[in-house]
Write a structure and sequence with these properties.
alpha/beta; Rossmann fold; 2 domains; globular
Length: 251
């Protein structure tokens, strides 16, 4: 149950529109509901501001459908990451309001809220980094953030980045996505006065070690104000950016 629905339920009880017994029935599965194969955390939105997210990789289609069905009874919007096309096809037969990004491997069930907070700018070093960047961007958008995108402005042609200083200066937080040697976040950290979330990707040749070299470069950055998430973890970057980009301090 998301915070808006819980607030409405309590208001309905206060007005006498909903009997206490009925409200107790609706609240009995807080803080979680046991589906045997998953314990769905209905209390997470109250603790952290955002509801639980479904990580589809490694789950069967029946498990995913069961979790979505359970969550849809209590949450207006559901985010599923690392979802293949077969997940979307199965869910689209059951839910009318659904969105799928094949590039980001994200399924969104329910309405996408209007942006209410300051700008998050998602930047990639190369075109090959876009899938991870889109996972970050869509995750942030699902939670009501305004997201701008700036792609293919890596260090091999750094003048491309500097020509977009107006976008950088308007942002409240930046997500910098890069593979290969992973130098882009350090450059951005040296010219921006806002938090930078660095996302290493597994894009690169052999010595890239599936993103490990980019990860180590980002962890060893000398630019202050840069934090790093795991390799290809666009979701984690988008989620964290949304936490930073809270209302009340718009730029």
């Amino acid at each position: 149950m998301d915070t808006d629905r819980l607030k409405k339920l309590l208001e309905d009880v206060s007005r006498g529109d909903v009997p206490v017994e009925k409200a107790m029935t609706r609240l009995k599965n807080l803080p979680f509901e046991d589906l045997q194969y998953a314990k769905v955390d209905h209390h997470r939105a109250l603790r952290q501001g955002y509801p639980e997210v479904i990580f589809c990789q490694g789950k069967t289609l029946d498990q995913i459908r069961g979790i979505v069905k359970n969550m849809s009874e209590r949450n207006s919007t559901i985010l599923a990451t690392r979802a293949g096309g077969h997940v979307y096809e199965a869910l689209s037969a059951e839910y009318k309001e659904i969105f799928y990004s094949e590039e980001a491997r994200i399924v969104i069930v329910g309405p996408r809220p209007a942006a209410e907070t300051g700008k998050i700018l998602v930047i990639t070093a190369g075109t090959s980094d876009i899938p991870v960047a889109e996972e970050a961007a869509l995750t942030a958008e699902v939670y009501g953030n305004h997201v701008d995108r700036l792609f293919d402005v890596g260090v091999s042609g750094i003048h491309r980045l500097f020509s977009h200083m107006d976008q950088i200066n308007r942002a409240k937080v930046i997500i910098a996505v890069a593979g290969m040697e992973g130098a882009l976040p350090s450059i951005i950290g040296g010219i921006a006065s806002i938090p930078v979330i660095a996302v290493p990707t597994s894009v690169g040749y052999g010595a890239n070690f599936q993103g490990l070299s980019a990860l180590l470069t980002m962890l060893n950055t000398c630019a202050p104000g840069v934090t790093v998430v795991n390799i290809d973890n666009g979701f984690g970057a988008g989620y964290f950016a949304g936490m930073i980009n809270q209302p009340g301090a718009e730029k």
